[in-house]
Specification:
The protein is an alpha/beta fold and about 475 residues long. Helices cover about 30% and strands about 25% of the residues. The chain contains 13 helices and 21 strands. Helix 1 links the parallel strand 1 and strand 2.
């Protein structure tokens, strides 16, 4: 494979890259996809979205069995955690999905190339193959889909054992007696929840005055209360200033808002302060691709092209939230545009989900954003406490909030904190995609008893006519 000619070479086989490759192949292109790891699927499938959700589900079941099954008339004796089995199941889930992507590549006649890619010209990619040797791929177009990597702290370097990133926190060999999480974003809260349910003491240190700062403030505060009730210790306006490691123990130094200094001793530290675009070794500056020196992002035009017209970029490399489904939609839109079709991404209807329990799912604008923009709106809320299915499930925390334009009733944002919010948000996304109104939701028949009835009641509440509250 010293030299090969393709219509499209995709660099990165994560959700954005592999989905783009499949769609391009469906459109008749000859496609190669370069991946530096030994499996397809990128961060999401291998060490991100999928394994973390597998562990979240397993830890939630353990927590329910330990704390709440008795209320349902289900009792255990000598309940115990088998952590190796839990981790093995997580790995099995990952393998099944990454093998599935490999099958899809074969089905669509996409050539996977395992190695480290470097853009050698606007229409060629040099690959140092994992198996040894190299390959030069000639192509009509290059799509950059290399994703992102965990951001670190200079005074708290990752050592892969006591101070870890999100990848390391997926495979502790034992439940930490005390885990400190630096950062109260979705990654830190999700993985902190996993280990808290499994028995660890978990302390979250956050520099900002609130957790999940991008979320609707009211629901974010409700989530904080819930997580605190579950046993997470959350310290806001606390700036981590350093750490010292001695054997299996870590002492984290921090400064509070009032200037006082404090220390936290623990056995593991998870640094979850965000992610940064991954462009290391790609040769972008050498070939002339512009990169924002402040953010590391690659600027693109509305058709995802960089300043070099034969090179495009999607996903975490470009502006916008670092979400797998955003990257997927961008990958599809990008290659459809290359094929002469009208590819498009509606950035106003990209949902976000925090997979704690209860889950927090959102789409559109928050109340704070509407106020900042001077938009006149009406809000409708409905608590899961008044929902029949939630009562039957014993999952009554949280609420649905719908924000609608005061003049037109068009839905501007929906925010759900509660059971299976990640699934319920899809209805809101669909309504907003078609520029629907709160009345459209209110007049749509929802099955009874279901959690989705809470969405309908919130829509009714926009006009002050909720039935069950």
């Amino acid at each position: 494979m010293a030299h090969k000619q393709f219509d499209l070479v995709v660099i990165g086989a994560g959700p954005g890259g592999y989905v783009a490759a499949i769609r391009a192949a469906q459109l008749g292109m000859k496609v190669a996809c370069v991946e530096k790891s030994r499996t397809l699927g990128g961060t999401c499938l291998n060490v991100g979205c999928i394994p973390s959700k597998a562990m979240l589900d397993s830890s939630e079941l353990f927590h329910l069995a330990k704390e709440r099954f008795k209320k349902h008339g289900i009792q255990f004796e000598a309940l115990k955690l088998d952590l190796p089995a839990l981790l093995a199941r997580k790995d099995e889930v990952v393998k099944g999905l990454t093998d599935g992507v490999r099958y899809l590549f074969r089905k669509n006649k996409i050539e996977p190339v395992f190695g480290t890619a470097r853009v050698s010209s606007p229409q060629s990619v040099h690959v140092e193959l994992n198996e040894g040797g190299s390959a030069d791929l000639q192509t009509g177009h290059i799509l950059l889909a290399t994703g992102s990597e965990p951001a670190g702290l200079p005074f708290l370097p990752f050592d892969g054992r006591t101070v870890v990133d999100s990848t390391g926190a997926l495979s502790f060999d034992r439940v930490p007696d005390h885990l400190i999480v630096v950062g109260a974003g979705y990654i830190g809260l999700e993985l902190g929840s996993v280990w808290r349910r499994l028995g660890a003491r978990v302390t979250v240190l956050e520099f900002l005055p609130r957790i999940v700062p991008a979320a609707d403030q009211e629901l974010g505060e409700l989530l904080k209360r819930s997580l605190t009730k579950q046993g997470l210790e959350i310290h806001l306006e606390t700036r981590v200033t350093g750490a010292s490691v001695a054997g299996d123990r870590v002492t984290v130094s921090a400064q509070k808002k009032d200037g006082s200094n404090t220390e936290f001793a623990c056995s593991r530290v998870l640094v979850a302060v965000g992610r940064r675009p991954f462009t290391t070794g790609l040769g972008l500056s050498e070939v002339g691709v512009a990169v924002d020196p402040q953010t590391g992002r690659v600027p693109v035009d509305p058709h995802f092209r960089t300043n070099l017209p034969t090179i495009s970029a999607i996903g975490d490399l470009i502006e916008g939230p670092m979400l797998a489904h955003k990257a997927e939609d961008e990958g599809i839109a990008c290659v459809e545009i290359l094929a002469g079709k009208a590819g498009h991404v509606n950035y106003e209807t990209i949902p976000s989900v925090i997979y704690t329990w209860p889950e927090l799912a959102s789409v559109g604008l928050t109340e704070e954003q509407l106020k900042q923009r001077g938009v006149s709106y009406r809000a409708g809320k409905f608590p899961f406490l008044a929902n029949g299915r939630a009562k039957a499930m014993d999952e009554t925390e949280g609420l649905v909030k719908i924000l609608a334009d005061a003049a037109t009733d068009r839905v501007l944002g929906v925010h759900i904190l509660g059971p299976r919010a990640s699934e319920l948000i899809a209805e809101a996304v669909a309504v907003m995609e078609f520029a629907g109104s709160a009345e459209d939701i209110a007049r749509t028949c929802h099955a009874h008893p279901t959690l989705s009835e809470a969405t309908r009641e919130a829509a009714l509440a926009v006009e002050g006519r909720a039935i069950h509250s």
